[in-house]
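Final report, section 2: Outcomes. Of the targets proposed, Polyprenyltransferase is the one most frequently requested by collaborating groups, and we therefore present its record in full.
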Amino acid sequence: MNAATLNSSRFWAYLQLLRPANIVTAWADILAGFAASGCIVFIAPSSSDLISLAWLLLATTGLYGGGIVFNDVFDAEIDTVERPERPIPSGRASQLTASILGSLLLSIGILAASQVTWLSATLACGIAAAAILYDAYSKHHPIFGPLNMGVCRGGNLMLGVSAVSPMVSNYWFLALIPIVYIAAVTTLSRGEVHGGKSTTGVFTLVLISTVLAGLLGLSFLENYHLLAVLPFIVLLAVRVLLPFIKAVSKPSPENIRTAVRAGVLSLIVLDAAVAAGFASLPYGLLVLILLPISIALSQIFAVT
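The predicted structure is given below as tokens.
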């Protein structure tokens, strides 16, 4: 193998560590939170709004990318046994270089967030800390692990809202929706390697149903448009409930991986529903455009 080929192979390995399809779902969190903050950039795009949005998208790219790189860093030993094809256990990426990359990405995420508001920077620090806590300690805990990962995604949604700082205190409860949703997906994902239990699958279905009910319940807010949300709720239910029900009825590793993959990518549909509710149907469709992009990337890069 010549030097050019070797460098190309290493670059691809570190790109695989980032899981680009997942990062796109994090962009959807920001766009949804931005809608809740009252910044409707596609109708009245002020330069300050666009700049804030750009910084927040860069921030979530760094935070999510860094967190997911450290996921593989801390899992290197167990992946050597369970998933030896991954970049670090296969030797295509070094654990030290991956650690440096993860640290750099998290730093970029915090720095980018600090360009928006002080609250954005604080949230970014909290997300980074929660991501490292999950990667290093809590991921193997049956209760704290899913909750911890949910907090990361709920914080990411609030990062989008933080473009207008006072709105975070007004809409803090929105973070509960991705927290419950991700808790469901993370709980189910525990059976990806060895298979799962039907009781675990039933619990995840209850959580997903709670999320759907929560999206409908937001209609009690004066500025939330239920009719704009309904198409996205139907799409979310179809995309998530069907594979989840299959995973419950037959909790094989393959069915669970399929359900988890659908759950992760469908975060975009969830965010599109929130975006449509606070902004409009066209804005929700704008967020939904990220779904085919994420699906296309998931054909190239692993999601879980």
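The first helix runs from residue 3 to 18.
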